[in-house]
Amino acid sequence: MSLFVWFCSAPAWADREKSNADLLAERLAEKPVLVTDHELREIPEGTAERLEQALSGLGVPYFVVVRSSGIHFDERKTPDELAVLLHERLQKDGIYLVTDARGSGTARQYGGSWPVERAWGVAGRELSYDAGVAQQVERFVEILRAPDVEARLKEVREAPESAYAKRSRERDRAEMRALVLGSVLGAAVVLVPLCVSLVRKRVRR
Amino acid sequence: MRAAACWLAAVLVVLLAPAGASSADETPYALVRLERVATALKADPLFVDDELVDLVDRGERGRIKKAIRKTGERLGMPVFVIVIPNPPDSEADGRDDVFLHWLHGQLGRDGLYLMVDEDANLEVVPFQVPRELGHFVIPQSLANPADRKEPFVGLVPRIEQAFAEVLDAPSAAPGTPELYSEADPFGEEPPPREPEIWGPFFGGLLVLGPIAAVLLLLLLVLGRGVYRMWRRPPTASDQPRVRRLHAQAEKELTRLAALLPPPEEAEGGPVALRSYDAARIVYDDVGPRPKARDDEAALDLVGVIVLARQGREVLEKGLLRPLAPCRVNPLHGPGILKRPVVGLPAGKICRSCADADARERVRRVLRLPGGRRYHEVKEGRWQRGFGGQDLAKRVLESLGVG
Q1: From which residue to which does the signal peptide run (chain B) (predicted)?
Q2: Number of Cβ pairs closer than 8 Å across A and B?
Q3: Which of residues 90-129 of A touch B (CB under 8 A)?
Q4: Taking the model in full, what pTM does it have?
């Protein structure tokens, strides 16, 4: 009988292919912060450690998946779907954070009622788009640890200018200065002799 | 994930210390993923990354492995298939060929490498494979999925077809396609563009500046013209409009009427009255709405203005006789200097006309709306112009009043 059960169940178990969610859940069980290595140029070294350090300040369990961004296919789970699947597999309470390297994602809390999803959105809006996922997680934790979380969520903080935007603005300004300087000189080259000759004509008359 | 990668990296560094240097001179962090994949490939020639694991099922994997085995046997070389996302921010800058070259350096084994990225694009790089293959190895139609919306449908036949392309190529000495351009240096992407200074400067100096100067001059000239047109009284115009002449005539008449009747002691009293009478009658004759192109009305109105001014001058300045108006343009006011004007009988002209040179003087002669100069009119009341000692008397006579 037991052999029969084994016989019947083993193929069923063996046939079930491990999905992306299964693999992630297995790894999350070992280590609560998973950061993709597909975007090494976007995610700086030590990001996982920074995330762990920031999140440990919350005092609740956390499970973080940072996936690669810019990948789209129909079978790919949305951050929301993946968070639910991960919780189903892990069966553990805590904050589930699924995001990509640019902070586009979601947060969910099981076994608690913190406004984590809103906090994640607010953290993203308060930062420039190139701030990086580590900074966004740190802001997320800061928001959740605020004395009055509701007030902190409603507080509107302007996102600073991104480093890229700042650099290109300064570059535009420098180029515009050069253009204006050149134009003024070019105009002077045309205008000054003209004005001089006009004045001379007037004086002669 | 990263810790696992670090652990693997450590193992790899110990095991393969000399081979690690071949993937360019990158920092150890840049090689984390390459090391992970290389380690996995040592155990299994098919690598499917976790992020794409849902796109290649078990059956497909079996078929790919079978194709790998068969192709490897026929080539006599290892064959690797790597299914992995390669986003633009990957260590290989999102370039699949760069990734395979670096992976080859990391793994240190020659053979046929086939990569499938997240869009199911195929990249094949043969390292020292004894076949004569072009730079792109497989045709573009095979390298890209047929249906961009369902890119992973039909992946296995495409891989098999790619292998067949390589196997069917004519035999040749082993060779490796060259990597013509490398990825950006790690950590310096995209290389920040420095501001261009000299381009805009010379653009401004040679093109924009001169154009702006010319436009500015044109605008100034135009503005001056418009300003003069609006600010100059009709009397100052060389070709005043009938409507403005009419308004001016009315104004001059009103100003003269305000001074009437003249005081007893005014010596020019009768002259002023006569001027007013003449002006008034002519003005009334013209009517309230003269036509814009009516030369006769224009002349009449010029006469009204001249007469009314003469009457006013006589009273204001205590003159006995009125002053003859400027010969060039009677609307300029009294003529005071004797100067020749080409085409006009001798007479006095105003200071402003006297200051102008001969050509300018001719240009300034009063024109009628029809375009004729006023002295060219050889018929009617004004054929002798507006000069003479007593214009008012002459006009009244012509009206049959005097």
Answers
A1: 1-23
A2: 159
A3: 101
A4: 0.62
Q: How far apart are CA B283 and CA B254, in angstroms?
A: 12
Q: Does B172 touch chain A (CB under 8 A)?
A: no
CA angle B398, B401, B402 (to 5 degrees): 85
Q: DSSP per residue over B287-304, as a string?
A: -SS--TT-HHHHHHHHHH
Residue found under tokens 């002798």 = B384
Q: What are B11's two structure tokens?
A: 């193992």
**Chain B residues within an 8 Å CB radius of A176:** 200
CA A117, CA B167: separation in Å to the nearest integer?
A: 54
Interface of A with B in 128-187 (CB under 8 A): 167, 170-172, 174-176, 178-187
Find residues 99-158 of chain B whose CB sits inside 8 Å of chain A: 118, 150-152
d(CA B1, CA A27): 7
Q: Compute the distance between CA of residue B78 and CA of residue B227 in angstroms, rounded to an integer.
A: 88
Query: Could you give the count of Cα atoms lying within 13 Å of A59 in the half-sphere of its Cβ?
Result: 5
Whether B142 contacts B56, CB under 8 Å = no
- The Cα–Cα gap between B256 and B268 comes to 13
Q: What is the DSSP letter of B182?
A: P
Four-residue CA torsion sign, B228, B229, B234, B237: positive
Which contiguous run of DSSP H or E holds residue A33?
strand A33-35
- For A131, which DSSP code? S
Distance from CA of A149 to the nearest CA of B (A): 32
Within 8 A by CB and 6+ apart from A194, the residues are B217
Pairing status of strand B79-83 against strand B111-116: parallel
| pLDDT score, position A11 | 42
- B220 touching chain A per CB within 8 A: no
Q: How far apart are CA B6 and CA B108, in angstroms?
A: 20
Give whole-number Cα distances, B49 to A23, A130, B33, B364, in Å: 11, 26, 11, 92
Distance from CA of A36 to the nearest CA of B (A): 7
Reduced to 3 states (helix: H, G, I; strand: E, B; else coil), residue B135 is: coil
Question: What is the pLDDT confidence band of residue A8, given thresholds at 50, 70 and 90?
Answer: very low
ipTM given for this complex: 0.80
Pairwise CA distance, residues B350 & B197, whole Å: 58
> Could you say which of B2, B118, B186 has the minimum Cβ distance to residue A41?
B186
Q: Give the CA radius of gyration of chain B.
A: 50
Residues 6+ apart with CB under 8 A from A191: B213, B216, B217
Inter-chain CB proximity A40 and B202 less than 8 Å: no
Q: How far is B223 from B4, CA to CA, in rounded Å? A: 77
Residue from B300, B388, B309 nearest B345 by CA: B388
List pLDDT tens digits, range A18-27.
899 999 999 9
- Closest CB from B90, B194, B201 relative to A39: B90
